[in-house]
Write a structure and sequence with these properties.
Shape: globular
Radius of gyration: 24 Å
CATH class of the largest domain: Alpha Beta
Number of domains: 3
CATH topology of the largest domain: Aminopeptidase
Number of strands: 19
Mean pLDDT: 94
Number of helices: 13
Distance between the termini: 44 Å
Strand order of the largest sheet: 1-2-3-4-5-6-8-7
Helix content: 25-40%
Strand content: 25-35%
């Protein structure tokens, strides 16, 4: 995807060394660089280096006018940049078919709609030519121009990461991570069907995974229900509407597969003889975060440098899984007044809250309440639905959910392992 892409007003084309003077004139603007997280360019030579080392990456384009503008700039005038990064270069895109998009336009061209026009054209080409199924977009909190472009393009905020390093400026900022799931017709139908159920919260594992672009829909039937699967041949997410629906889904799920099932009572219909792990679902439905926040902590995202600490405390995931969650930015930690990590919480692939742990030496100080309340707040700020899975015999966790105002979903759910034969 290296050829030119054209829109009504713009042309997206590969960068060349000859663009250095024009790039410098735009990138020397302090307000532009600060908003994007980099220092203003100081010379044409620096701009040339950026072209050769950064902007020359695959799927990265100079954005220029295809026709003269209404303000008199001639065709060929450089107005900005737009590019895509795959999982090998992005800290947001991790799975096949996921990409992260970045864009900027020079200050003289702000307010003309060039950024959404260029980004929309590139995303369309990525869906057609690269098979893209989900596009990520991150911008720093307070960047209203990027927030406006994201909304115009249809992105949905999925999380706010606190205290993210901005290495080129030597500071920390909060980052809003947004996702645009390029849903298939089946995906859109699945979300409509699940939203129409008596209690849509029963189906959050499936609906949120589909909505966030993490799972592909395999079945969306008004009578049978919805069946989805995590990208990359992962676990299945089954939301059968009846025993017949469970049996139909079981016929499509291969032996040995792991399945999330909305109604544990249907496990025998979907996978006779399966090993079953039941749990209670809990959902937070208030518009405002919990009033009770527990003992004060500083909350910030954990990184792969924290793998040893998390892996030593959390026993329900292997080390590779822990590191994967940390790389995705799915785990946040709470630090006390002395800067010590006292505990953490994360989210799972199905978008549920989980991994809540407080280190033994730090227990009985109310830290678990503080940590989960912070996760709920972050999810609400990102327009997400906070929900979690709790083992039926985990009385302490169930008491915590009630204390924070979560509602227990009215049917037992489960994970199961379909027998090999």
């Amino acid at each position: 995807m290296r050829g030119a892409i054209e829109t009504e007003r713009l042309r997206l084309r590969p960068w060349t060394d000859a663009d250095a003077p024009a790039l410098f004139e735009l990138a020397r603007e302090p307000e532009l660089g600060y908003g994007a997280g980099w220092q203003p360019h100081r010379s044409v030579e620096e701009s040339l280096t950026v072209i050769q080392t950064v902007l020359g990456a695959p799927h990265t384009y100079a954005v220029e006018l295809r026709v003269p503008s209404a303000d008199g700039e001639p065709a060929g005038t450089l107005v900005g940049a737009v590019g895509l990064m795959g999982p090998d270069a992005s800290d947001l895109a991790f799975d096949a078919g996921e990409y992260e998009i970045g864009y900027w336009t020079g200050k003289p061209f702000w307010g003309r709609g060039y950024a959404p026009e260029a980004a929309g054209a590139l995303m369309g080409a990525a869906q057609r030519e690269l098979g893209a199924r989900a596009i990520w977009l991150g911008y720093y909190a307070g960047n209203e121009r990027s927030a406006h472009v994201a909304k115009k393009l249809g992105f949905r905020a999925v999380r706010v990461r606190r205290g993210v390093d901005v290495p080129l400026l030597g500071e920390r900022r909060d980052e809003v991570d947004n996702l645009l799931a390029l849903l298939s017709p089946e995906g859109r139908r699945a979300l409509v069907l699940l939203a129409a159920r008596d209690d849509p919260a029963r189906h959050l594992c499936t609906s949120e995974s589909v909505r966030l672009g993490r799972a592909d829909v395999l079945m969306a039937d008004e009578q049978l229900g919805v069946l989805a699967r995590f990208a990359g041949k992962g676990a299945y997410l089954a939301s059968p509407f009846s025993a017949a629906g469970a049996r139909a889904m079981g016929e499509r799920i291969e032996p040995g597969a792991v399945v999330s099932l909305d109604d544990a009572a249907l496990a025998g219909e979907l996978a006779p003889g399966a090993e079953v792990w039941p749990y209670d679902g809990w959902v937070y439905e208030a518009a405002e975060p919990p009033a009770e926040v527990g003992a004060p902590l500083e909350m910030r995202p954990l990184t792969v440098e924290d793998t040893d600490a998390v892996d030593a405390q959390y026993a329900l995931m292997d080390r590779d899984g822990v590191e994967d969650h940390l790389r995705r930015g799915w785990v946040i930690g709470g630090y006390d007044g002395e800067g010590r990590l006292v505990g953490f919480i994360g989210e799972h692939h199905e978008a549920s809250m989980g991994m809540l742990e407080v280190f033994p030496w730090a227990r009985r100080h109310g830290y678990a309440t503080t940590i989960e309340a912070a996760q709920i707040r972050a999810m609400l700020e990102a327009d997400r639905i906070p929900f979690c899975q709790v083992a039926p015999d985990n009385e302490a966790s169930q008491a915590l959910q009630r204390r924070l105002g979560l509602r227990r979903i009215g049917q037992t759910q489960c994970w199961l392992h379909k027998p090999e034969t």
